[in-house]
Amino acid sequence: MLSNLYEFTLMTSNKKYVIDIDLDYENIVQKIEHFLGKFLLEIYGNCSAVFDGRIKSTLGLGDRLLIIKIDQTILLHELRSLKPINWQLPGVGKLEFKLINSGENKQDIKQTNNYLLELYTFRPKTNESFTVVFENIYSLRAITGRENSEINIEGNEADMQSYLVQNPSLIEDDIKIINREYNTPIGKIDLIGKDKNGKTVLIELKKSLITPADAFQIVRYREIIMKIWNKPENIRSMIIGSKISEKLYFYLKEHEIEFKEIKWNEIFPSIPRKKKKKLNDFFSKNT
Amino acid sequence: MLSNLYEFTLMTSNKKYVIDIDLDYENIVQKIEHFLGKFLLEIYGNCSAVFDGRIKSTLGLGDRLLIIKIDQTILLHELRSLKPINWQLPGVGKLEFKLINSGENKQDIKQTNNYLLELYTFRPKTNESFTVVFENIYSLRAITGRENSEINIEGNEADMQSYLVQNPSLIEDDIKIINREYNTPIGKIDLIGKDKNGKTVLIELKKSLITPADAFQIVRYREIIMKIWNKPENIRSMIIGSKISEKLYFYLKEHEIEFKEIKWNEIFPSIPRKKKKKLNDFFSKNT
DNA sequence: GCCTAGGTCCCGTTG
DNA sequence: CAACGGGGCCTAGGC
User: Are residues A96 and A22 in the same domain?
Assistant: First the structure.
């Protein structure tokens, strides 16, 4: 595939998987389109942008890094902050690049700053358009590579649930877990237990801080189970988490919802800082 | 500042704001550290990674783009998808880069693939560490620019609230808005109105789809207001949104919560696709 | 496709 | 600082 790149004026590169594209504007749109969908594209330059859809966002001129991934994901990043300042998800069909002559009098097309490079996309599913206009491009490159990534995640809520099923005494003495992900008309109850007095315990799990929405949720589950099972005196409700605000704690108490504190990060601790455990240790332990 | 870059072997670049750093591993750590905090750094190569904190995530070898922003935000991006596969937020102190000799016999330090470049960070606030190890680096560059960005966002929930305060008849005839963001012990009520019969109307606003948590929130508000004000017969509750599932609609009905459909995207429409309105039009309209 | 809920949610605002 | 709620939330899983 690389063989036919040189129908354009591309900068040769001795870097594996990275192709710098020269900034002469001649055929720049075709050059870009050549890489779309096959390479990750990076355009760094001075641009403005408009997103119009779920909200309207207009972005004044600034130096930003536009990344167009292989799957059409578009990210417009500033020099600070985690989230892109603008973005668009895949599903925009063919990306529409266009070169616009901004100068009064027509000049050499190789002169970058007389031309604007516009990217326009439209995503029918959400009725959203996104436009980026580059007044100046400082760098343009395409990168590719092997995508054989593999991620392993431990310590999410599903893990916590499994752990508590294995160790129910962490919840309370002599409780038995009789259901996981129990289906109700309004959603799933994380765990259902039977306590030592034979009462049913509805349990909602949260890894960390309990939010008001979490508290409401378990109240609502209690409501629906009482209605379905029609045995209110035999039902307890409990929310498990590592932290709760005082206000919410009393709210739960009023509604006869118990709060059980389980500090998940003590059960599932991070590797201590002092040990400075390194990547190799981690991998060798796991294999 | 650029003047003293050439104490290292950097590639000269004719591109404004973009500096390619050569991949000889001699002094590579110092080269990188030279740019940290002042430039956005991009390292593209074959790497593995471990994040350890709120969860543990281990990432096998793959070609990924590591971005280190000026504010210490770290993003590890794959060639697809919006979100980085791993990341870390600012607050990690000095980033710890280290060059590790991986080969059995010591070889020329300029040979990339006998050395591993490791980045280790630790974020005390959340007790999270993040380690990336590059087995191969294909490209290393630093970019900088002007950060005078300005974003203008319209059409969020706050805008909707203001719009309804100005145009209460959209909610119903002869209603008067008497409160915004009314504080209760369990949260803020978006709007409180007085209807034509003198009844109080508690109003919860949602831009789009009503979620179960939204529905339950307004039920709780009703509860708390009834308790505080002690005038249940004079209180109505309403949730405003552009969409609701049938299930939730009946849930609300059972709890005497009214649902008022207001299609926000009709009040605040997107620029139609057909017109293909461009950035310039948008800006000239707004100025 | 809708619905539901988790997330290393992030992020801004308020008290 | 914690707490609270919005977000163009995104994303994965179930039905």
Answer: yes
Dist CA B220 CA B224 (whole Å)? 6
CA dist., res. A283 & res. A278, Å (int): 9
**Average pLDDT of the residues in B52-70:** 96
Q: Are strands B176-184 and B74-77 parallel, antiparallel or unpaired?
A: unpaired
Q: Which residue is nearest to nucleotide D2 (CA to C1')?
A: A245
Q: Which two tokens stand for residue B146?
A: 């002007």
Same domain, A125 and A183: no
Positions of strand C less than 7 angstroms from a protein CB: 1-11, 15
* Top-confidence residue, B224 or B141: B141
Query: Nearest-CA distance from B197 to chain A in Å?
Result: 31
Are A139 and A6 within one domain? yes
Q: Distance (Å, rounded) from C-alpha A255 to C-alpha A237?
A: 9
Write the pLDDT tens digit of every residue in B41-52: 999 999 999 999
Choose from A11, A12, A16, A100 for mutation: most chain B CBs within 10 A. A16
* Domain membership flag for residue A280: no
Q: Indicate whether B232 belongs to any domain.
A: yes
With a cut of 50, which residues of chain A have pLDDT below it? 1-7, 12, 274-279, 282-287
CB contact under 8 A, B138 and A138: no
Count of domains for chain B: 2
In chain B, the residue whose alpha carbon lies closest to the alpha carbon of A40 is B79
Q: Are residues A138 and A179 in the same domain?
A: no
Distant-in-sequence contacts of B84-87, Cβ < 8 A, 24+ apart: B85/A149, B85/A151, B85/B49, B85/B59, B86/B49, B86/B51, B86/B57, B86/B59, B86/B130, B86/B132, B87/A82
The separation, in Å, between residue B164 CA and nucleotide D6 C1' comes to 18
The pLDDT, as a whole number, for residue A177 is 95
**Residues B73 and B165 placed together within one structural domain of the fold:** no
Do A41 and A88 belong together in one domain? yes
Identify the CA nearest to A181 among candidates A204, A215, A148. Answer: A204
Question: Is B124 found in the same domain as B230?
Answer: no
**Domain of residue B36, residue span:** 2-143
A18 & A75 share domain: yes
Contact yes or no for B150 and A80 at CB 8 A? no
